[in-house]
Amino acid sequence: MKRIFVTGISTDVGKTIVSAIFTEALQADYWKPIQAGELDNDDKLKVNKLISNTKSKIHSNNYALHSPMSPHAAAEIDGTSIDLKKITEPNTKNDLIIEGAGGLLVPLNNKHTILDIIKPNYKVIVVSRHYLGSINHTLLTVNLLKEKGFDTFIIFSGKQHNTTEDIIKKIVAVPVIGRIDEEPYFDKNVIKEYANLFKPQLEKL
Predict the structure, then answer these.
(1) How far apart are CA 191 and CA 78, in angstroms?
(2) Which of 29-51 are b and which e, b meaning 16 or more Cβ less than 10 Å from the residue's Cβ?
(3) What is the pLDDT of residue 56?
(4) What is the dihedral sign for C-alpha 168, 174, 176, 180?
């Protein structure tokens, strides 16, 4: 049973789209432990609308916070705090795609970050999207994961930028799954096309 954790180099880099594609490709289950904001159209609902297969199960969040902020701040507004002991992996025998919130060092409370909920057996996919500063953010993210001993992979998102992508590949030396282009829109058909494209690589993880 595969456990694949999808993280990003920042917010709004395409983690949910990647998660939907991987969920569809493996007919895996999907789980986002912590959702902050957009509860009426949260990421698990978005993924559910984008996948086509009937095998995948969408699991509930452990924390569903109302404010679109860092989880530690959103939890404080909601009058609660995030306890790592309450972040429990769903009981499933299926492959599982796990979507993080923001980047690795997004704080969950005064002590823990997103990095602390990534288990040693998880394969970690880093979603990298070009913007000013993205090379630095990608290198920092990948190097931290490698330092911690995680099996780490990169997927690029958005418009292709060869100079950015080439230097990242040369410096970090981790496998690149591919890229998701800047599509006009994402629907079930587009997700299915990318799922078929990446399926052979994902099955080998």
Answers:
(1) 34
(2) bbbbbbbbbeeeebbbebbeebb
(3) 98
(4) negative
Is residue 111 part of the annotated active site? The answer reads no
When the pLDDT of each residue in the chain is averaged and rounded to a whole number, the result is 97
Q: Which domains are assigned to the chain? A: 3-204 (3.40.50.300)
User: At which residue do the structure tokens 């939890």 appear?
Assistant: 75
Q: Could you tell me the pLDDT band of residue 15, with boundaries at 50, 70 and 90?
A: very high
pLDDT of 181-194, one tens digit each?
999 999 999 999 99
* Rounded distance between C-alpha atoms, residue 103 and residue 166, angstroms: 22
Rg of the chain over Cα atoms, rounded to whole angstroms, equals 16
- Angstrom distances, CA of residue 145 to CA of 130, 184, 198: 20, 32, 22
8 Å CB contact between 98 and 122:
yes
* Helix or strand holding residue 157 (H, E): strand 151-157
Distance (Å, rounded) from C-alpha 176 to C-alpha 140? 16
**Minimal CA–CA distance to 202: which of 164, 155, 169?**
155
pLDDT of residue 58: 98
pTM for the model stands at 0.97
Catalytic residue chosen out of the listed positions 15, 32, 148, 192? 32
55 neighbors 27 (Cβ within 8 angstroms): yes
